[in-house]
């Protein structure tokens, strides 16, 4: 019997699910090794048991807590995909406000009909078995993780900072061009795509294990950023972990 796989969406733009559907070249081979039993963005089927449940999106509604607990009960493995699910991501920017303020500013008099709670990553609600970070996820990494699981191995989690791949790509460091970057403390695995494309790293894949925060703070300060600027920069994707910076 092929392993049963489901993909669920919570609070997010669903871009990480689109990345799965964008794996056109690899999907036929994957589908010969597993069975997708539930994936709202791609099909109408439902199932009651999953070998792997991929979760896209953060938890930001009371109703999502019960839904997550139900998925956990039915799934052998739960794997958050994307920064919203792994870290809370951009959804957690709302945690800077009270939920009442937010609801009133968005929905005015209809606020009472909406359910919202401070956003949080999936692991803050249920135990998870692995993480595939990124905004959005990297297709190659998703395929590799699935292949490793199908082969019965614990998937490898990339833990070098973005700087390592940035150097391998032959990029000139953006600090030498008067810009700032979170690459030294951010988990790589994206092949430093933003820097290669002419931008900077905003930390979308979260922190590496044991990040050298003090050193990153120092280079950002030397580049002219105040502590407040630094925290703001980091908050975009990592506000749930922001205590690290303060
Ligand atoms: S991690 Fe980024 S691309 Fe993926 S769902 Fe969240 S906002 Fe969209
Ligand atoms: S541009 Fe960013 S990721 Fe690349 S080497 Fe410099 S600090 Fe590291
Ligand atoms: S370079 Fe940074 S912001 Fe860009 S994809 Fe990689 S981790 Fe995310």
Please tell me about this protein's structure.
- The protein has 2 domains: 4-150, NADH:ubiquinone oxidoreductase-like, 20kDa subunit (Rossmann fold); 162-245, no CATH class.
- Helices cover 35% and strands 10% of the residues.
- It contains 10 helices and 4 strands.
- It has a 4-stranded parallel β-sheet with strand order 2-1-3-4.
- Helix 3 (62-74) links the parallel strand 3 (50-56) and strand 4.
- The model has no long low-confidence stretch (mean pLDDT 93).
- One iron/sulfur cluster binds at residues 162, 186, 190, 192-195, 201-202, 204-205.
Quickly list its features:
single chain, 246 residues, alpha/beta, Rossmann fold, 2 domains, four-stranded parallel sheet, 10 helices, binds iron/sulfur cluster
